[in-house]
């Protein structure tokens, strides 16, 4: 049944090992979406005008969009366009580790956001979180 299949895929049932997601090359090679389906690579699925509209909605700069267009038009380098998108959305990131699987993109994005949060958080004193002497009854 459906519940078992989902639990099996996430390693909660059966052999208790999660299943690996498809990599970007396999997703890129898949046939296009049809009604009600959502899968694949946005850089392959959308034609350039649609992709430009989507990138505009996602607040991607014109320079980054032009670079993505070049990569797609001059060799269908969808994975490289994805890395360019990642760099546009994560200023200062080099895109290392992105473009192999959607999961890798997600993990690297989380790392970038955690790094940014740590850099933007106020410095904490070395005894932060320690009870004061008065609270200890001293």
Notable characteristics:
7 helices, 51% helix, single chain, globular, mainly alpha, 138 residues
How would you summarize this macromolecular structure in one to three sentences?
The protein is mainly α. The protein has helices at 2-9, 24-29, 42-45, 48-57, 62-73, 78-89, 102-120.
Q: Can you describe what's shown?
A:
By secondary structure, the protein is an all-alpha fold. It has one domain. The protein contains 7 helices and no strands. Helix 5 runs antiparallel to helix 6. The model has no long low-confidence stretch (mean pLDDT 85).
Count of alpha/pi helices: 7
Tell me how many strands there are.
Answer: 0
Instruction: Sum up the overall morphology in one term.
Output: globular
Query: Which structural class matches the secondary elements?
Result: mainly alpha
User: Mean pLDDT across all residues, rounded?
Assistant: 85
Strand residues, percent: under 5%
Largest sheet: none
Helix % is: 40-55%
Oligomer: single chain
The tally of structural domains comes to 1
What order do the helices and strands come in, and which of them pair?
Blueprint: H1 2-9, H2 24-29, H3 42-45, H4 48-57, H5 62-73, H6 78-89, H7 102-120
């Amino acid at each position: 049944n459906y519940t078992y299949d989902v639990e099996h895929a996430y390693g909660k049932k059966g052999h208790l090992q999660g299943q690996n997601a498809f990599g970007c090359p396999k997703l890129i090679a898949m046939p296009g979406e049809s009604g009600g389906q959502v899968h694949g690579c946005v850089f392959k699925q959308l034609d350039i005008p649609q992709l430009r509209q989507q990138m505009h909605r996602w607040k991607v700069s014109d320079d980054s969009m032009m670079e993505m267009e070049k990569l797609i038009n001059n060799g269908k380098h969808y994975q490289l366009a994805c890395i360019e998108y990642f760099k546009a959305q994560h200023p200062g990131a080099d895109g290392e580790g992105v473009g192999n699987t959607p999961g890798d993109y997600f993990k690297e994005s989380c790392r970038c956001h955690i790094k940014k949060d740590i850099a933007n958080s106020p410095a904490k004193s070395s005894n932060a979180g320690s009870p004061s002497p008065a609270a200890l009854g001293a």
